[in-house]
Amino acid sequence: MNYIDIENIDLNLLRVFEALIEEGGASRAAIRLGLTQPAVSAALGRLRRVYSDPLFERTGRGLRPTVRANELAPLVEEALTQCRQALALTTVGNEIKGRTVTVGLSDDSEIALGQKILKKVDEHLPGLHIIFRQTHSGLAQDMLMRHQIDLAITAGGLSSHLVTSHRLGKGNYLCIADKNTSVPVTVADYAQRPHLLVSSGGFVGVVDEALNAVGYKRSVKVSTTHFAAVPFLLIETDLITTVPSHAARAMEKNTSLQIFPCPVSMPPYELEIGTRVGNRHDKVLHELKSIIVKICQTPGFLS
């Protein structure tokens, strides 16, 4: 391995690299860093010489990182995080100043948790910037390991010894429909209604498995991959859908939709929050994690 004397390297170049990775373009990186675009372009030129790699390639939509840049990204992010944590010790409260934390979660959890998290952050961690990034149980752990997110809220999938996880609680499901739709009481009535399915792919979901177990099959009229689309697809229709309880309650609160119990017994799921083991001494992440745990463990939030 070739070692480079850091005394001959401007470590601010790493901040430029971080901004380019996260913003995807020199102009946005310049705005973020408070620099001119030519200054960012010049810094990129120096980075390319240091690493003997183009690092970023121009596309029609900005800059695309090379394989080498993607390999460097988690290392640079970790190094800058450690530097920021060390400098934060100089003054009480400095650990928050200019800090951004990326929270990975599915959009049903974002609908239910997003506003509550932001309110608590304003109270307890003023100045902290939050990025919500969509993920799910099949991606969350990998995104943590790649430093694409700092915290993961997911229904399982966190099994690595490099990830520390905490149980948030056991979730369940509720049905939701337009306020003028009659509520199905029996499983038979529920099964014959036109259904909206929220799924990452296909027309079979957890509801279909529950119905199949008791000898019924439903009619899925439409499928979407995003919970955020649910209210717009349900309003003024006879469709019904079955979603996690915390998301259903948030949708009912902010729309004219109604929620009601699911006539068929649905299996509960475990929701958990995870971070990288290497962040165990990060005070800001620890405080944010505590905020999320308290929200989720509020009586009735997940059930």
Automatic annotation (TrEMBL):
PROSITE patterns: HTH_LYSR
Domain HTH lysR-type: residue ranges: 9-66
Source organism superkingdom: Bacteria
InterPro entries recorded: LysR-type_TF, LysR_HTH_N, LysR_subst-bd, WH-like_DNA-bd_sf, WH_DNA-bd_sf
Entry keyword set: DNA-binding, Transcription, Transcription regulation
Pfam families tied to this protein: HTH_1, LysR_substrate
Keyword Signal among UniProt keywords: no
Keyword Transcription regulation: yes
Signal sequence region: none
Any one Gene Ontology molecular-function term assigned to this protein's record: DNA binding
Entry's family note: Belongs to the LysR transcriptional regulatory family.
Protein name, entry field: LysR family transcriptional regulator
Organism: Photorhabdus khanii subsp. guanajuatensis
